[in-house]
Each structure stands twice: as structure tokens, then as C-alpha cells.
Amino acid sequence: MTAIAVPAEELRAQIRERVAAAGTSFYWAMRLLPKARRDAMFAVYAFCREVDDIADSDDPPEKKHAGLAEWRNEIFAIYEGRPRSSLGRVLVGIAETYKLGREDFVAVIDGMEMDAERDIRAPSLAELDLYCDRVAGAVGRLSVRIFGSDIPAADRVAGALGRALQLTNILRDLAEDAERGRLYLPAEFLRAHDISGDDPEAVLRHPALPLVCEDVAGVAERRFDEALRAMAECPRAAMRPAAAMGAVYYALLRRLRAGGWKDLAAPVKVPTSVKLWLALRHGLL
Fold first, then answer.
1. Is the pLDDT higher at 230 or at 45?
2. What is the CATH number of the domain that holds 90?
3. CA count, 13 A, side-chain hemisphere, 200
4. 273 domain-assigned
5. Residues 125, 255 share a domain
6. DSSP notation for 54-97
């Protein structure tokens, strides 16, 4: 949490620079938004980075819980109009302008608590779905309101696309997560392919790992399809950033499947030129 008060416009500029420097797919999709909405999304991104950095730190669990509790208190303070942090003061206006739900900010923190509590290893499908809803679906629900739609179909887009993106991230980051002692592949899929235990390194060495990954990729693909169907019921202009994000991540999923999860140390990325083309394509449709 920002300890020193920073003027709002200066903080917004710092956030824009941080997102741009990260070179994420998120940055290219958000470029489709008008400046005010784009800055609002960047501020939500900054909040997500703050709590994610706490959960992913090497600090002991009690320190992680304390950091997340501080942000939980800050979210409640934001909705009471008395934020203490510089980022909180920016989020006050954004939450009011776009009618963002406090429960969605809290859900993101709840998801980070799941990571902070213990190293997640071979969760059940139900636990994995809850985790994806908290760390990605909740962010999606905040996002679609900033994009300009709060109808039920937009929330369905948020839930389905958030899960699709998170599952794709899990498939991309298998080796990195294993280094942290984490394994997000669901227990039911591991058992279906006769993989026992939940030791991340052992699971990643198992010859049946690509079959498990294909099962997860199949779930992700169904979620992408579900999101597209829900998008068709929403205002087209409001869904352009979501469509661009979905297109970039679907391209990433296809690249992961083409690689067959044979070399988990090899980075799999969508080239910047492709991200830009997809952003332009969805911005012009």
C-alpha cells in the first residue's frame, strides 16, 4: 500500500507507465478504451498487482495475511469515503463513477488469501473454479462496468472469460508455479490419467502430464466459447476490450497446445505484433 501521499494525476501517470512497461496483453486491450475508462482500468490493475505481489512474496504467511488484511480494510475505507492510501484515493472516484461492487474487490483479496494461506497443490475442480472466480472473474466484473455494461450478460462474460484467461495462465506458468511449490492442475484430472501425489516437480515430470494439460485446455476453450456467446448479448462497443483480451489469450492457448507441453521451461508468448493486430481488429469491428 502506498505510504506517501501522491497527487492523483501523478499517481495515474505512474500507473500508466507501469502497465505499459509490463507489456501485457491487458495493456493492448485497454488501449481501446477512452482515456478516463482506460485510467480507471489501470488503477484496478494496480490494485490487483498490489495484492498479487503480497500473495506471491517470499514473506511468511502471517506477514502476507497482515498485508492482505490491510488492503481489505482499505477497500472498506474506500467505500466509506475515507481511504488512507494514494491508490485508494484514486479508487474512490472510480468505484463511485462506474458503480463498482465492493464485494468484487474483496473477492480478489479472498483469492489472494487462498495463495497466501498455503501453496495450492492439486485442488479439486470446485476449489479451482472458486479460485478462478475470485482472482479473475471478480476482476472481470469490475472491468465490464468500467467498459460500460452492467447487464447480466456482461457478468456472464466476466465469469466465463475470467476463468478462460486464468486457466490459460495456469497452463502457461506450470514451471514457474512449481518453483513456488504450487500446482493448480485439478486432482480429478490427475487421477484420471493415473498421476498420484501432488508434488509439483514430480507431476510435471510425469509422462501423462500433456493429457492433463489438454483436459484443462478443453475447459478453457469451453469457457472462451461461453464468453463469446454472452458477448453477443452485450453492447458491442462495451465488449471490445474483452473481445481483444479473449482473442489474445485464445491465441496463447493455441500456441500452448501446439507445443504439447513438452518443454515447460520454454516461454510461450503471443508476439507484440499479433497483440497489436488483434487489438486493432477488435477496436475497428
1. 230
2. 1.10.600.10
3. 18
4. no
5. yes
6. HHHSSS-HHHHHHHHHHHHHHHHHHHTT---SHHHHHHHHHHHH
Residue type, 32: L
Q: How many domains does the chain have?
A: 2
DSSP-assigned letters across all residues of 87-108: HHHHHHHHHHHTT--HHHHHHH
Residues 68-72: contacts with CB within 8 Å, 24+ apart?
A: 68/109, 68/112, 68/113, 68/116, 70/1, 71/1, 71/47, 71/109, 72/106, 72/109
- Same domain flag for 54 and 127: no
What does the alpha-carbon distance between residue 103 and residue 92 come to, in Å, rounded to a whole number? 15
Rounded alpha-carbon distances, angstroms, from residue 257 to 71, 222, 245, 250, 271? 37, 15, 18, 11, 16
pLDDT digits (tens, 9 = 90+) for 239-281: 999 998 999 999 999 999 999 999 998 888 887 777 667 666 6
Distance of alpha carbon 154 from its chain centroid, rounded?
17
Residues 6+ apart with CB under 8 A from 236: 285
pLDDT score recorded for residue 54: 95
How many helices and strands, by DSSP H and E, does the chain display? 15, 0
The residue to which cell 510425469 is assigned: 206
pLDDT score of 107 more than 90: yes
Cell of 121: 497443490
Task: Tell me the pLDDT tens digit for each residue of 86-95.
Answer: 899 999 999 9
